[in-house]
């Protein structure tokens, strides 16, 4: 027994050490402070060599919510031993967004050795994957080290005339490229080895700068900020010498050790299961292709699309909702939704989230793609997305509308540099700065009120003498102490300036062409163009003047997102771009093509409200349900299954008299309470 305990003790101690010393790093880590972010960059630049992929986001940003599941999924695909994925909320950590010149959301920055090597703005999955693969490959390729001893041994076999001082000088020049590393590592080491190989036929042997164990995932916060946890949790003392706590495992019995080991294993397993459950939850209601056509496919994820999804799902049609999870214009409302019955102190994103959850609860499934075309020349209809084609009997169009732009000089060039159409998405980036809002409708009023919470001043630019917005919103804007109005004015030009991004905030290059004789040459600052002001024109006098500002938010209305419907359905001749409905039969949401219905802003040029969009979505679902019934288009998958079961039952071997299985006979003949007519038949 004692021998067994002695044999078991080292294994238990090792397991406890592993479990207690390095908790698993989360798949995607949420940064809570600037200090934590700086510590994380330093750790992975000096201790692991892993790249850090950062998602600068905001909870109220629709594209941020759209790309979030992809970001987490990509983190799982790449693996924690190849890269570190983190998220930074710009609303709470505006200091970081200001430091790295984040001017639109989402913005992804790719760090390697503590410096930015690549970046882009927008919810582009292709770019995200491409830049991630590039920085991961760079990290793996440059995880090399060339020591002074190895270099000396190499020259002994290749060039004995090389003195020790010459070798020291060459090695120091290589080490100086990586300031702070203190050795010849990374791109400089691989370039030096490659140069020597070209010169002498083969190069010196290199070794990994960071071994596999160093690159394994561990809790960065615990390992760097809580050294006590690294020693275990079984008690102990620091003693007089200030040494870290060490576990008194020799005082524990076998039962205590096994109990502690089992407890930690259970905790670790529970944590892994919770993470798996979270991952599964993201895709729980995702669309899975079927061998049969869908009955209803809804294009759009705003109030109209989700209203249609709720009604269609409750009717048992199992609708497929094709839309990025950004919720249309309502998703971008940072102020409370005050004009939707029954909702008090609720923001737009919360409303959209509740609608999605309700639709999913009744059986709706979601496909996070964008539709590129609809083929109405055949039946069933064919809906083509970025990555797939879905056959469906009915389609409900609920794609909403896109923001309009001014079309003035400087607007397009400065998008991402201070020009935006989403105050909720990008407003927090300009905390404490001066901003302009262009427009006079409800959207402009809401943007101005959102920006007034964080910006130093907000100036509303409107081309008329009074706002077109609802009276209550207009009054709030006029009375707000941080908001001023420039009446009868238009924007003629948006002016930008070049600002320098410090060299220590970006990477010096990819390391492929380092000249060892000029390795320490410092790179200059990289310029970036940002908004500096705007030129305004008074429409009554024609005079122009220059106004300084740090951002321009455009809120001048929207255009229906119907470009993919050209030559598919008829458009409203009085309102270009809007789908024509209500002219073809008693179904008010039907379009010119049977089986295609439209709801929300895509067909409503007059009201364009969340509540009317949601109501028209319900109407479209009811119209689609009636049309399917009239056409005799049911659940083909269920009908096929029923026919298959009937065939299988018909193939069952018959009884002696060919009567098949009889439940009444199996129950023992005549049953109590049976009708006489039924009894006679039996």
Provide a short characterization of the protein structure.
This protein has 682 residues and is α/β, with parallel strands linked by helices. The chain contains 21 helices and 24 strands. α12 runs parallel beside α14 (348-361).
The helix/strand class is alpha/beta
- Estimate percent helicity: 25-40%
Tell me what portion of residues adopts beta-strand conformation.
15-25%
**Which geometry do the CA atoms define?**
globular
Distance between the termini: 73 Å
What does this structure look like?
The protein is of the alpha/beta class and 682 residues long. The strands form 6 sheets. Strands 8, 9, 10, 11, 12, 13 and 24 form a 7-stranded mixed beta sheet that branches. It has a 5-stranded mixed beta sheet with strand order 1-3-2-4-5. Residues 18-23, 221-245, 276-283, 503-525 and 669-682 have low confidence and may be disordered. Helix 16 (442-452) runs parallel beside helix 17.
Q: What is the topology?
A:
Layout: H1 2-21, E1 28-30, H2 34-48, E2 52-57, H3 62-78, E3 84-89, H4 94-99, E4 107-112, E5 115-121, H5 125-141, E6 145-146, H6 148-158, H7 164-177, E7 184-185, H8 186-200, H9 220-225, H10 227-230, H11 254-282, E8 294-299, H12 303-314, E9 320-322, H13 328-331, H14 348-361, E10 365-367, E11 371-375, E12 381-385, E13 389-397, E14 401-403, E15 419-420, H15 423-426, E16 434-438, H16 442-452, E17 457-461, H17 471-479, E18 483-486, E19 489-501, E20 526-538, E21 544-548, E22 551-554, E23 558-560, E24 596-598, H18 610-631, H19 636-650, H20 663-666, H21 676-681
Parallel strand pairs: 1-3, 2-3, 8-9, 8-13, 9-10, 13-24, 15-22, 16-17, 16-22, 17-18
Antiparallel strand pairs: 2-4, 4-5, 6-7, 11-12, 12-13, 14-23, 19-20, 20-21
Helix pairs in contact: 1-11, 3-5, 6-7, 12-14, 12-18, 16-17
